[in-house]
Amino acid sequence: MKRSKLMKAASLALALTLCVGVFTACGSSSSKTETKLSGEVTASGSSALQPLAQQAAEDFMKANPDVTVSVNGGGSGTGLKQVADGSVDIGNSDVAAEEKLDKDQAAKLTDNKVAVMVVAPVVNKDLGVDNLTTQQLTDIFTGKITNWKQVNGPDLKIMLVTRPASSGTRATFKKYAIGGAEESSKSALENDDSGTLMETVQKNKGAIAYVALSYLVNADKAVAVKIDGVEPSLDNAYSGKYKVWSYEHMYVQKDKDNAARDAFIKYVAGDDNAANIEKLGYGVISKMTKEAEATHK
Q1: What is the CA 117 to chain-centroid distance, rounded?
Q2: pTM of the predicted structure, to 2 decimals
Q3: Distance of CA 286 to CAs 94, 143, 181, Å?
Q4: Cα gap 175→168, rounded to integer Å
Q5: Under CATH, domain 39-116+246-294 is a member of which superfamily?
């Protein structure tokens, strides 16, 4: 009996020792903190993506005070060239890298899709024109129509506001709004700063331009124009009714590691930022339907 009691006591002691070891290990595992992010992240490119990227940068830096994120514009082509040559960590673009870079340069980059950009034609609120057909829009931007009275507007000369060839927003508008037609450069104002474009439209009754919906969120004197009766909106882009949209990309070099950069991009496209994406006028990628995707095939 004594021997049996001794064996039971020994077994109990061993079990207790194992339990203590397990709980100690679990405790040490749960007490481990994640690696603290630090360093600098630089991004440039798409002016359409700039508001989202800047807001995300501010929020990300609050959560990671040892990280500095700087975001600049310049156009999609500029951002792609700069990330390809290593002068920035992230190249923001409204179009795929293959559309702006040669094949070898594009092959060295990794694509991260972070949001959807909906592009809308915009006019001054006082103009009184809220709908244009695809043909009318094309004729306006190619210079065939030069007065608003030709499209049921007032007798007023059209002020055409366009973007440079490096612009990804221009590429999206050209492909999906005006059927690949070349924009007129004759007597047109050209600028790739979306803020400046919006200011021009708001100060000139006869002006027309095109911007990402994000620039219409707080606009007072500019309104979006329907195309063939379809309103430029996130819901219409999600459903496939409105086809003038593109994915917003954040490109990085494949062979360059940067933990802070990768964490920032993950945050921009993540679920925690989804509500903010729509609040700023961008679309959430997961909401794009098969019908919407079909408009871009």
Answers
A1: 6
A2: 0.82
A3: 17, 38, 31
A4: 11
A5: Periplasmic binding protein-like II (3.40.190.10)
Interval 157-204: pLDDT, tens: 999 999 988 888 999 999 999 999 999 877 678 887 888 899 999 999
> Is the torsion defined by CA of 179, 184, 190, 196 positive or negative?
negative
Structure tokens at 221: 């004197």
The CATH number of 117-239 is 3.40.190.10
Tell me the per-residue pLDDT of 196-252, one tens digit each, with 9 for 90 and over.
899 999 999 999 999 999 899 888 899 999 999 999 999 999 999 999 999 999 999
Residues with Cβ < 8 Å from 296, sequence gap 6 or more?
Answer: 176, 243
Closest CA to 163 of 94, 105, 97, 216: 94
Task: Tell me the C-alpha distance between 253 and 56, whole Å.
Answer: 21
Q: Which of 268, 222, 211 is nearest to 41 (CA)?
A: 268
Q: How many CB atoms lie within 10 A of CB 112?
A: 17
User: Residue 133's Cα: distance from chain center in Å?
Assistant: 27
Residue recorded with tokens 């481990």: 32
Biggest alpha carbon–alpha carbon distance for the chain: 112
Neighbours of 217 (CB within 10 A): 12
Query: For 14-72, what is each residue's pLDDT tens digit?
Result: 443 433 343 334 443 333 335 689 999 999 999 889 999 999 999 999 999 999 999 99
Domain ranges of the chain: 39-116+246-294, 117-239
- Examine domains 39-116+246-294 and 117-239 and report if their fold is the same: yes
| Measured distance CA(140)–CA(212) in Å, rounded | 19
* Among the listed residues 121, 124, 118, the one whose alpha carbon sits nearest the alpha carbon of residue 281: 118
Q: Tokens for 15? A: 């079990």
Pick from 251, 116, 95, 111: nearest CA to 175: 95
